[in-house]
Amino acid sequence: MIRRPPRSTPKPSSAASDVYKRQGYSEGINTVFYNDNGEVDYTLRAIRQFHLKDQSSLLEEPLVRFFKNGISTWNIVAKLGLVGGNTAAPDSLMEPIQLSGDVEVHRLDAYGNPTVLSTQRLDIDPNQETLATHDTVYMVTASITHTGRGMLADLNRDEINFYSDNSGHYASQGNNAATEQ
What we know:
The protein is an all-beta fold. It contains no helices and 12 strands. The protein has strands at about 20-35, 40-50, 55-60, 65-70, 70-75, 80-85, 95-110, 115-125, 130-140, 145-155, 160-170, 175-180. A 6-stranded antiparallel β-barrel has the order 2-3-6-7-5-4. The protein is globular.
């Protein structure tokens, strides 16, 4: 007979170490947020969630998906996420989400052309549907490769602004290519 140790709450990864004082633990979370019309606004999934004593939650491998007219428009993944903790925030507002570690933002335009943004830290404001960071951001599309330091993306307007240290490469549909510094 094989004796197995009793099942216990798994130890958090190094990111969720004793720096964060845990109060609870869940696996496989899937949260759906609706707009005033009853349509899915965005979803938040994670492999694991550690509820912390300051009322925030540490998320392992979060996936945030924004929707428009029932279609997923922006998909964001990372190693870690932190949400909540602001007990003074009005109930009508969603808490900002802070992502870190190999953050990737994926978007398909109306023609199926992909855009991928990658950075190490990203703040999501689900109320304004904006993404922001002060870190270096790499953007790759079908015809553009761009690097910039700091970014603000407005998901409603499909607009991405880079703050500084911009450098990029553009390849037109033909054989001509241009580099911009």
